[in-house]
Sequence to fold (403 residues):
Amino acid sequence: MHFATKTIHAGQPSEPNTGAVVAPIFQTTTYQQEGPGEHKGFDYTRTSNPTRKRLEAVLAELEGGTKCAVFGSGLAAENAILQAYLKPGDTIVVPVDVYGGTFRLLHKVFEPLGAIVERVDFSDLDALKRAVAVGPKLVWLESPTNPRLLVYDIEAVARIAHSAGALVVVDNTFATPYFQQPLSLGADLVIQSVTKYLAGHLDVIQGAVIAKDEKIFEPVGFLQNALGGVPSPFDCWLTLRGIKTLELRMERHAQNASAIAEALLAHPRVKRVYYPGLASHPGHEVAKKQMTGFGGMVSFELDGTLEEASAFVSSLTYFALGESLGGVRSLVCLPCKMTHASIPAETRAELGLSDTLIRLSPGVEHPRDLVGDVLAGLERLEHGGTSAASAVSKAPCGEPVLQ
Ligand SMILES: Cc1ncc(COP(=O)(O)O)c(C=O)c1O
Fold:
């Protein structure tokens, strides 16, 4: 079955009782039993629910895994993996530029509980080999990364991690299973912030864990029920609906991102463009090897001041200034003041997250409208036209904001 066919058919037969081609939302907390303990496989919705089960079946198939558990957010999904596999005294190795929410979860929640967090540059495989010498329980990475879209070699990382006996977790949120299949590249577990491209319509917060095999999945499945961070049946239904167009949306997102990246490259007010599809991107060759497309996100560094970057992101017509990404409507964000504000300023500087780094999440609007919007925003800077936002943004980046 091809990917697009799976998004519509995997785990989603017509509803057997009525023939409805779209199964209803099983908006119920509990299920009538025929006798004590005698039921049709469902007893309480925290434990299992038919709508959630359909979603878990399709996500497992799309990622090429055996089992999936969905959660009330991407971070709840991450928490379940960490609780399952990271005990006091255990080490986790993560890239230096791991997503801000993961950084906060590790340093503010798991480190105080006794976990050891080692941050390494994953583009330096020798440094990674040295780091795994301590025998970590987990090696965790994203690729492409948020927001600089760096690309790490998943197959090489998995080989090194496995040689030290670690499990490999890949956050596949940016690529989605349409463009990248980490389990086939050697990962043991995939996490998804379903909130982003999978749900795709900016109306659902959700996460998922997909495991290569049942044994690795088992403790995560147990914790889905024991911790209880499950999504509502309605949210699962919305995601099932969103996923049906995943392939179509991802193709358009990537087309838009690529067109914007090319336009930015040629602009004098742009210092640097981050898009894995550009031949000049340091991870381009690895991206070509492990991805079937370069994804829908593009970031760039403005040649200017924080004030100008704030004015630019606040002035666009089709890109709403907001957190999140991966939706049908375009979004823009200034990471130093928004998504990555919880990372201390000095750490951000080390990571190359400058105050004028701008992240664009092109939606599925027409490419010419989006390119025109971005170029018009840059043009306004050239001619000194700023919005009221420039006054707001005089404060330095970096007050820790916990979103
Ligand atoms: C790469 C990545 N992983 C995980 C998350 C967390 O997901 P959620 O916001 O659904 O908890 C995000 C959120 O922005 C993300 O960008």
Notes: The radius of gyration is 21 Å. Residues 387-403 have pLDDT under 50 and may be disordered. Residues 3-243 form a domain with the Aspartate Aminotransferase; domain 2 fold (CATH 3.40.640.10). Residues 73-75, 99, 101, 142, 146, 171, 173, 193, 195, 205, 207 surround pyridoxal-5'-phosphate (CB under 6 Å).
